[in-house]
């Protein structure tokens, strides 16, 4: 059995579709012309280039030959391997019937991201949550106990997948002070939030993690619109991805070719300007822990 790609199948598919589009454009032909030459429907090629379906080895080689790349060319081997990796099942596949399609796609991109920039106005970022904090939040947001179990299980698995990578991504988290002050879980166990804050301090010991806090004194800001995450990738053939969680656990939007990415990237940097210096985050969290105990 072959080893899974360190980028994951979603990112590998994005790389493959980018290459196939580049090769067709370099040949100077349209999708309609390629489809006609290969006796395919145009919609088939559109789906392949759009990444909504995988591409078989046979179809890939047919495309490459049409673009003038013969079977002995090293490029064929490279793209065949990328296509194989793009067809693999991601760790999230067992949850495909429980999770929204856009969120599944986001998990695929997150698995291969090199930089994760996130803003949170109300909740600790999912990648930093303790299991008991995640349970305390989810019980208020998800009515079905079975669905709650899935939400928490996936959240914990996400952390395992991201932090256990040989080359973990740079995590750059900005959050409102409200995230740290709200005593989530306090009605049942007053220690849930202090332990969550202590966990954040522990994670901050990792060289690839930073947390910045916007104090209440800064007033209103763009982040009050809601949480968002921007994913960046080592491979320039993969577009940045913007993830918006708008009104609920499964109400998500993923856009990888959208002008909003530029808007939110600028907003993220503006939010960082409002935050206290990173070196003050640890002492500030310590003060909040002390106030809760």
From TrEMBL:
It comes from the Bacteria. Residues 20-76 form the HTH cro/C1-type domain. SMART domains: HTH_XRE. Pfam families: DUF5753, HTH_31. One of its GO terms (molecular function) is DNA binding. InterPro entries: Cro/C1-type_HTH (IPR001387), DUF5753 (IPR043917), Lambda_DNA-bd_dom_sf (IPR010982). This is Helix-turn-helix domain-containing protein. It comes from Actinomadura montaniterrae.
């Amino acid at each position: 059995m072959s080893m899974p790609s360190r980028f994951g199948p979603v990112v590998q598919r994005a790389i493959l579709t980018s290459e196939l589009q580049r090769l067709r454009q370099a040949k100077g032909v349209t999708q309609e012309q390629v489809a006609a030459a290969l006796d395919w429907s145009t919609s088939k090629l559109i789906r392949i280039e759009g990444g909504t379906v995988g591409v078989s080895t046979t179809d890939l080689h047919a495309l490459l030959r049409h673009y003038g790349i013969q079977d002995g060319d090293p490029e064929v081997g490279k793209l065949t391997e990328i296509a194989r990796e793009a067809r693999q099942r991601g760790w999230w596949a067992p949850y495909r019937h429980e999770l929204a399609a856009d969120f599944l796609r986001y998990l695929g991109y997150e698995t291969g991201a090199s930089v994760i920039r996130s803003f949170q106005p109300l909740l600790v970022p999912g990648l930093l949550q303790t299991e008991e904090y995640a349970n305390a939040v989810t019980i208020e947001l998800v009515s079905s106990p079975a669905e709650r179990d899935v939400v928490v299980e996936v959240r914990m698995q996400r952390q395992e997948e991201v932090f256990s990578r040989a080359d973990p991504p740079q995590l750059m988290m900005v959050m409102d002070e409200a995230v740290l002050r709200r005593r989530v879980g306090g009605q049942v166990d007053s220690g849930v939030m202090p332990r969550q804050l202590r966990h954040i301090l522990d994670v901050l010991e990792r060289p690839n993690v930073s947390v910045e806090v916007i104090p209440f004194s800064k007033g209103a800001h763009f982040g009050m619109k809601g949480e968002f995450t921007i994913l960046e990738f080592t491979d320039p053939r993969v577009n940045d991805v913007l993830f918006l969680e708008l009104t609920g656990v499964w109400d998500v939007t993923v856009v990888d070719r959208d002008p909003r990415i530029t808007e939110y990237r600028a907003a993220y940097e503006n939010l960082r300007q409002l935050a206290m210096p990173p070196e003050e985050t640890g002492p500030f969290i310590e003060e909040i822990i002390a106030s809760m105990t």
